Amino acid sequence: MPKPTPLSGFPELLPAARVVEREVIASLSRTFELHGFANIETRVVEPLDRLAKGGEIDKEIYVLRRLQAGEGEGDSGLGLHFDLTVPFARYVLEHAGHLEFPFRRFQIQPAWRGERPQEGRYRQFTQADVDIVGRDELPFHHDVEVMRVMVDALDALPLPALSFQFNNRKLIQGFYRGLGLPDLTTAIRTIDKLDKLPADEVAALLVRDAGATPEQARRCLELATIRVPDTTFVDAVRDLGVEDELLDEGLAELAAVVEGCGAEERRHVTVEANLRIARGLDYYTGTVVEIFMAGYERLKSVGGGGRYDALASDGRTTYPGVGVSFGVSRSLIPLISDGVLSGSRPVPSVVLVAVTDEDSRGDADAIATALRAGGVPCEVSPSAAKFGKQIRYAERRGIPYVWFGAEVKDIRSGAQVAADPATWQPPAEDLRPAIITNTEENHQ
Amino acid sequence: MPKPTPLSGFPELLPAARVVEREVIASLSRTFELHGFANIETRVVEPLDRLAKGGEIDKEIYVLRRLQAGEGEGDSGLGLHFDLTVPFARYVLEHAGHLEFPFRRFQIQPAWRGERPQEGRYRQFTQADVDIVGRDELPFHHDVEVMRVMVDALDALPLPALSFQFNNRKLIQGFYRGLGLPDLTTAIRTIDKLDKLPADEVAALLVRDAGATPEQARRCLELATIRVPDTTFVDAVRDLGVEDELLDEGLAELAAVVEGCGAEERRHVTVEANLRIARGLDYYTGTVVEIFMAGYERLKSVGGGGRYDALASDGRTTYPGVGVSFGVSRSLIPLISDGVLSGSRPVPSVVLVAVTDEDSRGDADAIATALRAGGVPCEVSPSAAKFGKQIRYAERRGIPYVWFGAEVKDIRSGAQVAADPATWQPPAEDLRPAIITNTEENHQ
């Protein structure tokens, strides 16, 4: 069979790059668990009617068919999930009787979309989602909590500067209602186009599609230009002179989120209120957020989420939720491709145990066993070649130490010392492959 | 939308059961890394011609089709992988120029088969594979090594007794050749039916299908009855009086594997030479192994693998490999269903920080932040209900400690002591959810 060629949209990582992804996933998991979130995994398939929204499927879904299906058997009726929210909502409904609410979960899995691949958009991509779901009710303070968890989680990663841009659907809806706009839903969808269209075109669309007067459209755009790193947006909105109860509620909620997430000094995460963030999806009902990565604005957001008062419902019980998703593939693959992030070595081994001759391979195995008992990852040389060749074997894999009989050599410095495999430990920074950040790379 | 019902063959774990699977995967990964194996993940899809064997697809494969495919666009030509060997072989060929050989990798991912679900057989199931692949050549000692790695890895898990049953294709082929059997491949496939058919039927099939004489068939069965926990099989085979060079090689290899894997005393893994193990698959060329779990013989093997002299080939270069696969879902899901394994609690939180009233939620948040800085997973009570209700919230989730102001209470014993959240640590056994083994359960 000929040499295979890559499949567009299905990126695969070499071992050193996989170190980056794996360490990122481990770090995210650690933060989520410190905050008491349980991990779950859902099956990768959902019935097609679950993947539909309002009866219609607007996503590029992959449908499954059994290759050996009988005549006329057709599709399985199952599709690969395109995000982790739909399967999570289904999981909550299906297993509600066995879950304790509020239910706090994180989920890090691939999802699939059959769309045209481009940088940051893949046909298979990994997401990390964290959500809190209540039964019948879910106090607002969980909005602040779950957003702060993601701020904590992303601040712990070696990423470029990240900006959490918050808004609140109640704020927008209340403002539009207070203005007297006739069609709030269309207005929100239209404002959401501000990142693609110039302001005057959006204003024209507000008049044409959402039934706004030119004056109303102007004030909608005024609202959308407010963007501050603190709670001063409250006064800025008040100054626009619109009165509405829902607006008041939205202002208070957004202020609490911005304050709660922005209070601490962070390494590279900043927080803003950005009143043009709407998120096109219908089901958000309060807090909304989009996350942007400095130097990678071309990817659009690398994460987002918000509050949905009806994440799931079985007709009798409604499950409100709040959550946020981070695009692991969407952010990491461009950073890896650009050389901004790399793995310090492609193998876990800290030590290569040299073999003098094949008859003494058992001695080398015994040294390796002793090292492993002390928690030191190592491997035994595959051949009893000349020592120079064995050292080059280690060098090519980035393995920092070679063990010869009763001595260990740091092949980077050349320093060689007597050592006992039962007690020897490498410096902590050598123990595991790590993520290397190359800030010299031009990642424009 | 109505309450969803489970999809047959796509098992999903509740959070406490997921603790079991997650800890098992973490433990396997730890052992593989201690032995210097790098982790990779492959995309879940392969072109259909890669999933075919000798031009024919004999597995129940799920094919993908874009739901929004245009008229006449048909299938994508991609199928979900049905194991991790096919994608790994393709990964090696595709990325060979960027890999160092021998290449040592482990891979823990789901695979899919559209077959009829039954206990231990699912449509989506997770496997853990560990392999070593060489370019052009791969010394035999890697057979011993990779099998010992899996013995180490499974011995570290809290599973029922496991038996590694080894054989060697060279031994079987050499013996059959030495006997003068005309059709070795058919003979091996026929002997492989010994776990389904009685010995006299297999003998009749050897005569009918493999062209054996009744005397040859009798001696094939004699070979297949040899099963010992040590290297005494060598003399037992010699006593059958067949002479062949390949047989000698196979005997020496099998003796080295059994000795290498069986030398150490293990907690619950035992090693045997079982000369009826053949593994039906064609590509094995030396060492073969199947792994069985005590009390769960009805699942057939829970793992297996072996040596393949041509794991992959692009026409110019051939990549021999040796590896072994463990069925994570196949073994764990029955054990979880039977109550043999369970998670100690469904949440990572060790501590619930109580909230006196909503105005002081910030104080509770500060305590939680201090605990997390010390690596203690915790969550803040979702409501400022009466303390008794907050304690019940913790109890229902198996959270062992509740924090009240300046004191921490072990709600299992009732003991309450003054504590500083900046320095307090739980006993090590409470820090993370763990796997509980219930050996009282009847798992017949």
From TrEMBL, chains A, B:
CDD domains: HisRS-like_core. Coiled coil: none annotated. PROSITE patterns: AA_TRNA_LIGASE_II. Residues 420-444 are annotated as: Disordered. GO terms for molecular function: ligase activity. It catalyses: tRNA(His) + L-histidine + ATP = L-histidyl-tRNA(His) + AMP + diphosphate + H(+). Keywords: Aminoacyl-tRNA synthetase, ATP-binding, Cytoplasm, Ligase, Nucleotide-binding, Protein biosynthesis. It is an enzyme of class 6 (ligase). Residues 20-348 form the Aminoacyl-transfer RNA synthetases class-II family profile domain. It holds the Pfam family HGTP_anticodon. Its EC number is 6.1.1.21. InterPro entries: aa-tRNA-synth_II (IPR006195), aa-tRNA-synth_II/BPL/LPL (IPR045864), Anticodon-bd (IPR004154), Anticodon-bd_dom_sf (IPR036621), His-tRNA-ligase (IPR015807), HisRS-like_core (IPR041715), HisRS/HisZ (IPR004516). Homodimer. Belongs to the class-II aminoacyl-tRNA synthetase family. This is Histidine--tRNA ligase.
